[in-house]
Amino acid sequence: MRRLTATIWLLFLMLMGTASVLSAADTKPADLLADLTPADIHRLGERMYRQGLLSDGTPLRGFIRGDVPVDSTVFSCANCHTRSGLGAIEGQVAAPPVNGPNLFKPRYLYADFVKNTISASRGKTRPATAIRPAYTDETLAAALLAGVSATGRDFLPVMPRYNMGDRDMQILISYLKNLSAQVSPGITDTTMHLATIVTDDVSATDRAAMLAPLETLVHINEQRKTQRQDQRFAKMFRMLDNAYYRDLSISTWELKGPAHTWAAQLEAYYQKEPVFAIVSGISNQSWQPIHDFCEKRQIPNLFPVTDLPVISSEDWYTMYASKGYHGEGETVARYIASHDDSTAKRIILQIVVQSEQGKALAAGFDAAWKDVGNPGSVKTVTFQTAAVPDAKQLKALFATHKPTDVLIWGGEPLLNPIKQLSGVKKMPRLYLSGRALEKKLNDLPETLREKIFITYPFRLPEDEKAYRGFADVLLMSKQKVKDDKRITSRTFSAVHMLLLGLKEIKLDFYRDTLLDQVSMRTDQYLPDFERYSFGPGQRYASKGCYVVQLGSGSKPRLVKRSDWVVF
Amino acid sequence: MNRLLRLILPILLLTVCYGLPDPAAAAGKTYQRTQEQYQLPDVTLINQNGKRVRLKSIVDTNKPVVVDFIFGTCTTICPVLSAGFINLQNRLGADTQKVQLVSITIDPENDTPKVMQEYLKRYRAKPGWDFYTGSRKDIDLVMRSFGAYIPNKMSHYAITFIHQPKSPHWIRLYGILSSSEFLEEVRKVGI
């Protein structure tokens, strides 16, 4: 049976090659739109579809549930049908695909669709009946204005009935015709081209740790030809199901020199080999230039190993495992704010070393502190990376500001000065980043531990054991990897999410569909983070971060002082 | 007349004559109505302003309370439910303050007060519609107590509860209501 399905898929894929050429939509400018260029039509159509604005800038209006007025700037077509137009299923309500290739072809039951395609490849026609005829411009307009399907059936009351004029209707229809109509770059008949990114500040060990799971993925994909019968691998092959009918190629794009030169380097790599998506990647510097490149080129970047992500609620193309250092800063703000002590008496001293790390922690704290309504005074003191404060300077700052809470955003260079703080009278509470100090936490002196609070953005070590096996699965191609920085496991998670996404997109090789589909996955329990959770448009999978304190002894336990998510 | 409408009129007529019946319309109502009693847990939730509020004090007021479950980034169900809420507020006009609308998130980890505030703003909510989040454990307890446990956001369904002041009873509305139906259901518990 499985072999049969495999053959079917394989045939299917061969056909897709031709299909993708045919589906290039033909859009001849209609009379009503004679004054608009195709680019104008696309831009206006996209704005209508995504933001619910008509060509004159007013909201597209309609009715939902029969008589409830809707304004599409509140929720647009994209809200329900997803950005790529391939639709979504939420509970019992399915918003069907509305992209050109789906609307303007008859719809068949899925089983018929597969069989028809195979028959056609053999030059035969099957007498299957369509469950819905192809839409025409007229029936599609009827669907949007009056809520009537091409079958003649009235839509469920969930699909709005819209008020729009002819000109806007033509713009929208033209947009839908071209929506997800051409397979994205990076996909050929035989190969899915992917890339990963390594910057030259990354050590050889860390580089190898990141590449190992990707190499294993390619390797296993290669072995599919001989090994898919093997029981031991059956489960993994099932996961790879849809992906593995194409060869996977993952190029490593190496970025050298200063960050402002990366964009040009990325562009050159991309010109040489357009890729469908970028999987994982690693840098010790801010991900910003890579993030910006992916936005500009509209390339998905799935879960790079970075703790310096770009924080944005609008951007689309990069999905991060977490908000990194920024998220830890946010957690501290909410944790302090959630305490009952009087706001008037709360004095916060924020000591920031101007490294990328220190700046991200402070930015997170500042943003969240503002969101919770500035409940207390904050004094921020900054230091250059070359001149971090010593214990004496810290004590002087404490004496001047008399803080109740001190945030020390400096990472390892500040560890020694902190150790020498024992003995300060009226010691304030100290907050440190656990991500920055993870390997050194045991060094914090016992006498201070009562006063030290640590943000810990990972699952606690005692709970983590059960998840470590995950990484081994992908490392079974007998690679020896040295990694104590969660690099291999985080890349493993990126691969896991890529495969889940590929499984869902089936043969709809559109980049936005990959992102839409990954966004609609259920919670994933993977190594490192307590939970990866998703939702349309969400771009930081792990939302939580514990606040912990250290137990006693030379190998102290981490003791939770907060929930996974602090409000 | 709209040129397009003129073009499609024959099709509309065809639909009237030969159209397949809408399964929901055939059943008359698009929703089920039952009366229930729920044992709600004593948990504290957090509203869009970051204020901590006991669930008991949200529900035990002398106003009718309408509860639904939504989340900030949801696709099809929430727009429909929330459009219903805002439309109810609009139709009640001056009476808006006489009913308390409560949305509880099923995605507490993402729905911070800020996200909830932005959601309400986007829908142009008026005072009297609050959005609550909380720890995942507490939210799970709340969903379970309403017999509406939604373990996975993408298996969300439309369900609305109406509480009559000082009564042990809740009206459970499963499915999607038109604005007139919704208004009528709220009026039945007394405003």
From TrEMBL, chain A:
Show the GO MF annotations: electron transfer activity; heme binding; metal ion binding
Q: What domain of life does the UniProt record list for this protein's source?
A: Bacteria
Where does the signal peptide begin and end? 1-24
Using the record for this protein, list the coiled-coil segments as residue ranges, or answer none. Answer: none
Return the InterPro entries for the record.
Answer: Cyt_c-like_dom (IPR009056), Cyt_c-like_dom_sf (IPR036909), Leu-bd (IPR028081), Peripla_BP_I (IPR028082)
**Per UniProt, which keywords does this protein have?**
Heme, Iron, Metal-binding, Signal
Residue ranges constituting the Cytochrome c domain according to the UniProt record: 52-180
- Hey, which family's this protein in? Belongs to the leucine-binding protein family.
What this protein is called in its record is Amino acid/amide ABC transporter substrate-binding protein, HAAT family
What is the scientific name of the source organism? Trichlorobacter thiogenes
TrEMBL record, chain B:
**InterPro entries assigned to the protein according to its UniProt record, in alphabetical order:** SCO1/SenC (IPR003782), Thioredoxin-like_sf (IPR036249), Thioredoxin_domain (IPR013766)
Q: Name one matching Pfam family.
A: SCO1-SenC
Range of residues in the leader sequence:
1-26
Paired cysteines (S-S):
C74-C78
Q: Which Gene3D superfamilies match?
A: Glutaredoxin
GO MF entries: metal ion binding
The UniProt record gives the binding positions of Cu cation as C74, C78
What are the entry keywords?
Copper, Disulfide bond, Metal-binding, Signal
Domain Thioredoxin, first and last residues per copy: 34-191
Q: Which domain of life is it from?
A: Bacteria
- Can you tell me which family this protein belongs to? Belongs to the SCO1/2 family.
What is this protein called in UniProt? Answer: Protein SCO1/2
